[in-house]
Amino acid sequence: MENSNNIWYVTILLSAVAGYCDTVTFVAANSMFSAHVTGNFIVFAYQIINGSDPQAWIKLLSFPVFVAAVITGGQIGAEAGKRYRLLFIEGILLLMSGIFAMSAKFYSMAYWSVHFTAMMVVFAMGLQNAFGKLYAKETYGPTTMMTGNVTQASLDLGSLLFSLFKNTVSLGALKNQTITITGFLGGCLTGALMAKDFGLPVLIAPGLLLIICYLSTTRQAARQLQ
């Protein structure tokens, strides 16, 4: 990750992780969004008017947890030379959340364990959001929320069409946005399939992926310095 030429790699990795985690918690944690936390307001309101979930208020807790994560991420990521520590910590949190969910399932813990796991993932996604804001040039765009990316892609597509495909700047930007959106969509589809069959323990996968990527790239960077 430390190589500045790996923007494509970092973008698709983080987009896929965000899409995966957001979908896993929505499918397996009572419709809880972990990346698009403002979506929890809508789900909360819907569940309240339908009286379908007496614990619906817990979704509101995702907002202060997310805010706390972003503040924490801002402090951790302040040192530019070690900016990828945020993603390493995110990986640790996701790994721990998956292991905790597996233990809770094995020992038949109470319903609160599901919410606790979801909040761990919300915190992890908050760190990723902080990374995206602090180091915007490390990716092609936001990796956790796709509305802005789709909007930009639509504008670039319009410019490309009206220029009869002669606007090379818009073409390049559209390709970049496509990478981000495709990565997120792939993560969503994979997360939905995994969560449907195995539940929250599948959060171990993105955690391990982030940790392995971090360790492998830091080793490569160390070899290059030798």
Structure description:
It contains 8 helices and no strands. The mean pLDDT is 88. It has 226 residues and is an all-alpha fold.
Oligomer: single chain
Instruction: Say how many strands there are.
Output: 0
Question: Any low-confidence stretches, pLDDT <50, length ≥5?
Answer: none
Portion in helices: over 70%
Radius of gyration: 18 Å
Reading the helices and strands in chain order gives HHHHHHHH
What integer is the average pLDDT? 88
Shape estimate: globular
The share of residues in extended strands comes to under 5%
Termini separation comes to 18 Å
Largest sheet: none
Given helix and strand content, the structural type is mainly alpha
Determine the number of helices (DSSP H or I, runs of at least 4 residues): 8
Write the layout of secondary structure elements.
Elements lengths: L6 H22 L10 H12 L11 H15 L8 H22 L5 H23 L12 H16 L5 H31 L5 H22 L1
In short:
The chain is mainly alpha-helical and 226 residues long. Helix content is 72%, strand content 0%.
Keywords:
226 residues, mainly alpha, globular
